[in-house]
């Protein structure tokens, strides 16, 4: 099974000019370690909100040239705020792409089990009438990312990953700076 | 004869239209039903319901970061569902946003539990540092629309969430 870090490296290749919002904890730390870009918004808290924020960004960017707005969230975060799946289904934001890294645990807090061990998140997304692609290896993940960027959403990529974590420094930036860079990138 | 509620809803509609938002997000509320119905029919603003206030705050924040103007209308109980998102995202990241909030609890409230959250809510918001303006019978209704436009401008000028909270049941201070 692939690691989150290997999957993020693949995603990094295809998102130089695509807004990407990453969830708090290890996901944002690993994502930032690949290279900071102004098209990245790193969430430092508010677990589970990333997909919701990406819905709003996707709607605001409908008439702009960006192909997508990508949200990266974990299984724990998605199950903390499944309301975002309902909103995505209802609002049908064509530029919304949610990538769920599912390791069936809360890796950032020590690997405690999440509910995802008994819940198939792709099926949950499909239950909300969302297109969902389930992948378990790096080649399938890369293919899903490449094809999803080129087609209308909303789309959910449900990527099963192992529980490996990279050691990276905390993101303790002033959130105001993080938001300012991201917003300038979106609206310039 | 028009009730206080009817007149208040007219003023709230007028205020929102003066702000001219791109998006109007709401959670159903009987007291401001006419406001929601008005914007559902509007062809000038994109209106949609959200399933939970926390999700709505996230969506509105994304809209704001993307350079468009949202307004969200919720009941005060919804602050309980969204205060983490309001503080650790919208406030921390300096995202301008106007949230209109209808008061529950107080005279005229028939629900036997909601007062336990609605009555202490102003103190909770004060302690959380979320700037809140309160409109009730003490501010002439004709000033309410101006207060809403000023709230939207203040959110932009001070780069943060601003709550404008109104008691449209009339009667004493809650």
Secondary structure: elements and pairs:
The complex is a heterodimer of chains A (about 190) and B (about 170).
Chain A (H helix, E strand, L loop, with lengths): L3 H10 L6 E3 L3 H8 L6 E3 L7 H11 L8 E6 H6 L2 H9 L4 E7 L2 E2 L5 E2 L7 H7 L3 E5 L2 H13 L4 E6 L14 H13 L1
Helix pairs in contact in A: 1-7
Chain B lengths: L3 H16 L3 E4 L6 H8 L5 E4 L3 H13 L4 E6 L1 H15 L5 E6 L12 H4 L2 H8 L3 E4 L8 H15 L2 E6 L8
Parallel strand pairs in B: 1-2, 1-3, 3-4, 4-6, 5-6
Helix pairs in contact in B: 1-2, 1-7, 3-4
Structural class assignment of chain A: alpha/beta
Determine the CATH topology of chain A. Rossmann fold
Corresponding CATH architecture of chain B: 3-Layer(aba) Sandwich
Q: State the total count of DSSP E strands of chain A.
A: 8
Q: Low-confidence segments of chain A, ≥5 residues, pLDDT <50?
A: none
SSE series of chain A:
HEHEHEHHEEEHEHEH
* CATH topology value of chain B: Rossmann fold
Written account of the structure:
The complex is a heterodimer of chains A (188) and B (174). The longest helix of chain A is centred in the last third of the chain and has 13 residues, at 138-150. Chain A has helices at 4-13, 26-33, 50-60, 75-80, 83-91, 121-127, 138-150, 175-187; strands at residues 20-22, 40-42, 69-74, 96-102, 105-106, 112-113, 131-135, 155-160. In chain A, the strands form 2 sheets. A 6-stranded parallel sheet of chain A has the order 2-1-3-4-8-7, sandwiched between helices. In chain A, helix 1 (4-13) runs parallel beside helix 7. Helix content of chain A is 41%, strand content 18%. Chain A has one domain (4-187): Rossmann fold. In chain A, strand 7 (131-135), helix 7 (138-150) and strand 8 form a beta-alpha-beta unit. Chain B is α/β, with parallel strands linked by helices and 174 residues long. In chain B, 45% of the residues lie in helices and 17% in strands. Chain B has helices at residues 4-19, 33-40, 53-65, 77-91, 115-118, 121-128, 144-158; strands at 23-26, 46-49, 70-75, 97-102, 132-135, 161-166. Chain B has a 6-stranded parallel sheet with strand order 2-1-3-4-6-5, sandwiched between helices. In chain B, helix 3 (53-65) runs parallel beside helix 4 (77-91). At the A-B interface, helix 3, helix 5 and helix 8 of A face strand 2, helix 3 and helix 4 of B.
């Amino acid at each position: 099974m692939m690691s989150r870090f290997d999957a993020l490296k693949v995603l990094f290749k295809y998102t130089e000019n695509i807004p990407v919002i990453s969830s708090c904890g290890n996901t944002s730390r690993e994502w930032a370690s690949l290279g900071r870009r102004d098209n990245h918004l790193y969430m430092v808290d508010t677990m589970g909100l990333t997909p919701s924020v990406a819905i709003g960004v996707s709607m605001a960017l409908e008439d702009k040239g960006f192909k997508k707005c990508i949200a990266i969230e974990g299984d724990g975060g998605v199950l903390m705020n499944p309301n975002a799946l309902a909103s995505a289904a209802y609002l049908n934001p064509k530029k919304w792409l949610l990538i769920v890294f599912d390791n069936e645990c809360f890796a950032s807090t020590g690997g405690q089990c999440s509910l995802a061990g008994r819940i198939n998140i792709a099926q949950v997304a499909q239950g909300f009438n969302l297109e969902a692609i389930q992948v378990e290896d790096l080649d399938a993940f890369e293919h899903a990312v490449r094809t999803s960027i080129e087609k209308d959403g909303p789309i959910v990529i449900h990527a099963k990953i192992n529980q490996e974590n990279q050691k990276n420094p905390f993101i303790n930036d002033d959130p105001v700076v993080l938001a300012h860079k991201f917003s300038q990138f979106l609206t310039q | 004869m028009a009730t206080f509620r009817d007149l208040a809803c007219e003023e709230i509609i007028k205020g929102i239209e003066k702000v001219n938002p791109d998006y109007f997000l709401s959670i159903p509320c009987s007291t401001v039903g006419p406001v929601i119905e008005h914007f559902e029919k509007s062809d000038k603003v994109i209106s949609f319901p959200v399933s939970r206030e926390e999700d709505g705050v996230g969506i509105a924040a994304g809209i704001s970061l993307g350079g468009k103007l949202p307004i969200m209308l919720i009941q005060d109980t919804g602050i309980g569902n969204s205060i983490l998102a309001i503080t650790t995202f919208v406030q921390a990241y300096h995202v301008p946003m106007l949230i209109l909030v209808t008061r529950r609890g107080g005279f005229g409230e028939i629900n036997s539990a909601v007062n336990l959250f609605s009555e202490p809510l102003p103190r909770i918001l004060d302690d959380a540092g979320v700037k809140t303006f309160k409109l009730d019978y003490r501010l002439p209704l004709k000033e309410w629309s101006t207060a809403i436009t000023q709230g939207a401008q203040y959110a932009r000028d001070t780069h943060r969430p601003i709550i404008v909270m109104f008691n449209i049941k009339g009667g004493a201070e809650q």
